[in-house]
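Dear H.,

Thanks for agreeing to be a second pair of eyes. The structure we're designing against is below in token form, covering all 418 positions.
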């Protein structure tokens, strides 16, 4: 590539996006379709136009910025990520992939190197589950697993549906049916993302090539016992919903520790005790379960064993429970030919790499359902993410951009399918 990645651009755009934040007092919070996120969308689109890209937006707010190729009839090559955040986050989760994608397309354009296929850098709507409790809304819609009807049945904490919000923002919902992509409509997709773990930092290698992406299964468990007096009710006769929930949590943790998968996790991130009195035995506890695995079979086995264990605990403790499944997604194995191309391009750029499994999910999990897909990781300082402490050096983002740009250019000149 004649044009090298410009670290100042990367810094400018990361810091430019960081201004759009609803919690400047602590980290960065940019939640789907709130004022900061809407303003950030306009900023990003303006900067994309500023580097000469044609910008469009679909009916769920996915943004597509195109660098036209010489053979526009060929299926395009995609890169991109997200610009929304979890509460009190950092400034790199998602944003790194959008910014480095923009810089990669600028490099290709300025290098005046021929590329047959259009190359697009995209912003996928709401990768984080923060507002509507469901992740990857935009990339699910692209994969055809989020219909317009579905948007009427997912609600935020103020009971607003995604559908209502899309109407309020004047998205052309007649075009929602045009969102899903069929196999073949996108030639290849490569997403750059921060690692959100410390393996690259520990190994000292600047690039991660992702082999598999774990998929989440999310449940809300409601345990119902008997609300009663903390002093008047003896230990033998109580049916404590929180004690039962705690036993379920430790049972799940033990299952996850013993799971034979290459990489899996189980997390209870939210728990609510009802009624919540210091001298009241909780009659009800509502808690979240977030299970990740890079292997479909071991994840299904773990969930089957989890519910069998929960049944036994509930029976023995004289409580009942219900389970609401929010999503149960399928892990992705990255496309081997793109992985091989990434290996080659890292070597050409003299950048050492590790081959990794991604514990976090990403939009690529869904893009990979209709296109050959892979991911590039760059290091996260101390492996921290989903925190104001999240940090990646701009020089590390520059390294990732060099590999991304070369890979997008190579893919855009490939004729045979991969
Ligand atoms: O939770 C995840 O894995 C992603 O960062 N949203
Ligand atoms: Mn995230
Ligand atoms: Mn992310």
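And this is the sequence the design step returned. I haven't edited it by hand at all.
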């Amino acid at each position: 590539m004649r044009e090298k990645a410009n670290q100042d651009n990367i810094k400018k755009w990361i810091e430019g996006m960081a201004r759009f934040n609803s919690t400047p007092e602590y980290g960065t919070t940019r939640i789907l379709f709130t004022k900061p996120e809407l303003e950030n969308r306009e900023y990003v689109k303006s900067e994309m136009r500023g580097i000469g890209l044609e910008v469009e937006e679909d009916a769920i707010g996915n943004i597509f910025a195109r660098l036209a190729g010489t053979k526009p009839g060929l299926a395009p090559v995609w890169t991109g990520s997200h610009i929304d955040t979890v509460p009190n986050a950092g400034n790199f989760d998602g944003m790194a992939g959008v910014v480095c994608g923009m810089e990669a397309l600028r490099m290709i354009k300025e290098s005046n190197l021929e590329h047959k296929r259009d190359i697009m850098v995209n912003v996928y709507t709401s990768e984080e589950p923060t507002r509507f409790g469901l992740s990857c809304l935009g990339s699910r819609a692209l994969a055809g697993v989020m219909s317009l009807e579905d948007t009427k049945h997912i609600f935020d904490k103020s009971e607003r549906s995604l559908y209502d919000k899309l109407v309020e923002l004047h998205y052309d919902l007649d075009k929602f049916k045009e969102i899903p992509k069929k196999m073949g409509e996108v030639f290849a997709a490569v997403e750059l993302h921060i690692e959100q773990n410390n393996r690259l930092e520990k190994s000292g290698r600047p690039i991660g090539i992702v082999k598999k992406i774990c998929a989440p299964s999310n449940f809300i468990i409601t345990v119902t016992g008997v609300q009663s007096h903390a002093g008047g009710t003896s230990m033998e006769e109580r049916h404590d919903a929180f004690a039962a929930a705690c036993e379920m949590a430790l049972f799940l943790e033990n299952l996850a520790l013993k799971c034979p998968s290459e990489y899996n996790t189980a997390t209870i991130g939210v728990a609510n005790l009802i009624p919540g009195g210091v001298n009241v035995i909780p009659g009800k506890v509502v808690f979240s379960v977030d299970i990740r695995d890079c292997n479909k079979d071991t994840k299904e086995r773990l969930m089957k064993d989890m519910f069998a264990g929960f049944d036994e605990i509930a029976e023995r403790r004289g409580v009942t429970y219900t389970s609401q499944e929010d999503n149960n997604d399928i892990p992705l194995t990255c496309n081997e030919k793109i992985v091989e191309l990434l290996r080659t391009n890292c070597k050409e750029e003299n950048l050492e790499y590790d081959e990794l499994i991604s514990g976090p999910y990403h939009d690529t999990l869904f893009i990979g359902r209709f296109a050959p897909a892979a991911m590039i990781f760059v290091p996260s300082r101390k492996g921290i993410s989903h925190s104001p402490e999240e940090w990646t050096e701009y020089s590390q983002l520059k390294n990732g951009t060099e590999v991304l740009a070369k890979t997008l250019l190579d893919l855009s000149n490939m004729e045979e399918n991969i």
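Two observations from my side: The first strand starts at residue 54 and ends at 57. The first helix runs from residue 7 to 18.

Warmly,
E.
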